[in-house]
Specification:
Length: about 400
């Protein structure tokens, strides 16, 4: 017989059942509905990854599965979500506004070429936020209560409609007396004043947001060196870029909508590159790239997550306040009359991610061009590039010009 609670697996439990002063007693760990029993989905969505025989692997300090992220969530909170369903919807307007941009290019007598750009456009990366609804489509209000003395004043998450007349998971105020009254989200409220409104629905809402982009670029030829060089750079300031924010304290209590949000952030991104031509016609280019999040959140429990890699298995990975990339590019023509050209670029991502792309193009005639490309990803799987190791690919194509 075992006792399963926040971060503990104990064999001293005397009898199965629910006790207002303690957690649930289980005949064995495999009876735990969160693990893989009749109440779960057999681990398809990584609810828990604990050894079914011993309980080994339960680690709330370094969580890798759903329930390890919620060690402070009470059974009263889970009662709020009984029977819940989810829905994913796209909130795209029919009359999407057009993107708008302008550019100015100029040069100085010194040989410096420059450009200024402004672009007001939809961010190509959609934003996803979550909220609760009832079956009537009303948005539900999330409340937190700490009124169960026998449970050590443990916080309980509860849902209600905006008017506060329909409660999900019991009554408006939890007490010791009604904590185990069996009231669920599909039952009549204990006061007898109406139905709780049915099981709640967790809605994932995807939408596009507009971003201001102010940028500039320059290039300058340096002829005074043995090898002619070109110094160049690009700069971009962005506003209103949505970034995921994780609140681990709210998540530990089971308050999903407070734990998983997005926040508008400003970014400054820039590239500094140096180009050289050696060995007659071999072009070599090196680049330094940095993305700076000017509104980065870096608290102990609340932080900006990495939108490209965060996952249950990596602790909902924190993002980078300043993320750096380094690239090296080679390009050279070949063949009779130099009808072909090969290119190779290697990019290193801070954190241990790598991407290499090699492509070759050959003009068989003025109308027919053949092309082949090899993309290889490797490195730390918790990086943008490293996670695509199994997506390395080779491509072939033919282009006909008429």
């Amino acid at each position: 017989m075992g006792l399963y609670t926040a971060g503990t697996y104990d064999t001293s439990c005397s009898a199965p059942g629910v006790d207002v002063s303690g957690p649930v007693c289980l005949e064995s760990f495999t009876d735990n509905p969160f693990y893989g029993g009749a109440w779960s989905n057999n681990g398809v969505t990584n609810l828990i990854d604990v050894d079914p025989a011993t309980g080994d692997g339960w680690d709330t300090a370094n969580p890798t599965s759903t329930w390890e992220y919620m060690p402070n969530a009470t059974f009263a909170t889970f009662n709020t979500y009984v029977g819940m369903t989810t829905r994913y919807e796209k909130d795209y307007t029919d009359d999407i506004d057009a993107n708008f941009g302008m550019r100015y290019r100029g040069s100085l007598d010194s040989g410096l070429n420059f450009g200024l750009n402004y672009f007001y456009a939809y961010d190509p990366n959609p934003v996803v936020n979550i909220h609760w609804e009832n079956s009537a489509g009303e948005t539900l209000v999330v409340n937190e209560h700490t009124t169960i003395p026998a449970m050590g004043s443990t916080t309980v998450v509860q849902l209600s409609n905006a008017a506060g007349t329909e409660f999900y998971g019991g009554v408006a105020t939890f007490t010791d007396a009604n904590y185990t009254d069996g009231v669920g989200p599909t039952d009549v409220d204990p006061s007898g004043t109406g139905n709780n409104g049915g099981a709640p629905i967790l809605v994932f809402e995807e939408k596009l947001t507009r971003v201001h982009n102010l940028g500039g670029s320059f290039d300058y030829a340096i002829d005074s060196t043995p090898i002619p060089l070109v110094l160049r750079g690009e700069f971009l300031y962005q506003t209103d870029v949505h970034q995921p924010i994780i609140d681990r304290a709210a998540l530990s209590r089971g308050n999903l909508t407070a734990a998983l949000t997005t926040q508008e952030s400003d970014f400054f991104k820039y590239v500094i590159g140096l180009d050289a031509t050696v060995m007659t016609n071999l072009m070599v280019s090196g680049q330094f790239i940095q993305f700076r999040n000017l509104d980065f959140v870096n608290g102990a429990n609340r932080y900006t997550a990495d939108p490209a890699t965060m996952h249950l298995t990596n602790g909902l990975q924190k993002g980078w306040e300043n993320k750096e990339f380094y690239s090296l590019f080679f390009s050279k023509p070949f063949g009779e009359s130099q009808l072909g050209r090969w290119n190779n670029i290697t990019i290193y991502e801070e954190g241990g991610g790598w991407w290499n792309r090699f492509d070759v193009e050959y003009s068989f005639s003025d109308q027919l061009v053949g092309k082949a490309e090899l993309n290889t990803y490797w490195g730390d799987e918790e990086t943008t590039f490293g996670q695509f190791e199994n997506a390395s690919n080779i491509q072939f194509g033919v282009k006909y010009i008429f």
